[in-house]
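Appendix B, record 7
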Amino acid sequence: MNDLVPVSLLVNGVRYDAAIRPWRTLLEVLRETLALTGTKRSCGEGQCGACTVLIDGRAVNACLYLAVEAQGKEIQTIEGPAAGDPVLAQIQRSFATKGAIQCGFCTPGMVIAARALLAERAQPSEDEIRAALVGHLCRCTGYVQIIEAIQDAAGALARDAAPVAARVGS
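Structure tokens (predicted):
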């Protein structure tokens, strides 16, 4: 009996076609089938946030999301879109410069959660940042540097956008 189903997934702007078992999670397919290992496997229960990816711009736990349900949706992982994502790149830079990366295991999920937040709120408050990180566990940083990194990224993105807005308004 052939229990494989065909799936076509759009991940970071690249289409992948595969035959998978219908009960495989998006996390399993990303890591084991597509070799995109930036998304981490940790609790497997949606409690730690290490497996966070964006699906149609919304942060979700890939360990709880069936890969077959992701067909027709845009998936973004920590590896980022093929064409590049300046917002994601700035968040990554801010995490590095603010010391928000310790062991690094939770970092991909935190960065993706920050990406979703900054797409929704360009200048989030500290409380909004904390709310966006609910469900993300970090055993190394104490979250202070992570919050500072997200604030730094938001500030840098606003500074970068200001000259563009000034030119458009001229």
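Remarks on this record: The chain is about 40% helix and 15% strand. The longest strand covers residues 5-11.
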